[in-house]
Amino acid sequence: MAYGSTLTTTEDAAPARKSRGAFFTPPKMAEYLADWAIVSPEDTVLEPACGEAEFLIASYKRLMALGANPKEAAERISGCELHADSAQAALARCAELSFEPLIHVGDFFERRQEAAFDVVIGNPPYVRFQVLDSSQKDYFKEVSHRTGYAISALASAWAPFVMHAASFLIAGGRLAFVLPAELLTVNYAASIRTFLLSEFANITIVTFDKQVFPEVQEEVVLLLASGYLSGSSDCIKWRQASDLDRIGEGVDKDYYPGANGKRWTGGLVPAAVADALNALDGGGFCRLGDWGRISLGAVSGNNDYFTLGADDITSIDLDDSDVVRISPPGSKHLRKLAFTDEDHDRLVAQGKKAYLFYPEAASSKAVRRYLEVGVANQVDQGYKCRKRKPWWRVPIVEAPDAFVTYMNDYAPSICINHARVRHLNSVHGLTFADEYRDLGKQLLALACLNSVTLLSAEIEGRAYGGGLLKVEPREAARLQVPSPGLVEAARDRLEAVLDNGAMLLAGSDLLSLRNQVDEALFDGVTGIADGLLEQIRDSKQVLYERRRNRGKGRMRKRTHTPSSRR
Ligand SMILES: C[S@@+](CC[C@H](N)C(=O)[O-])C[C@H]1O[C@@H](n2cnc3c(N)ncnc32)[C@H](O)[C@@H]1O
Question: Is residue 506 classed exposed, middle or buried when 0-12, 13-18 and 19+ CB atoms within 10 A define those classes?
Answer without folding.
Answer: exposed
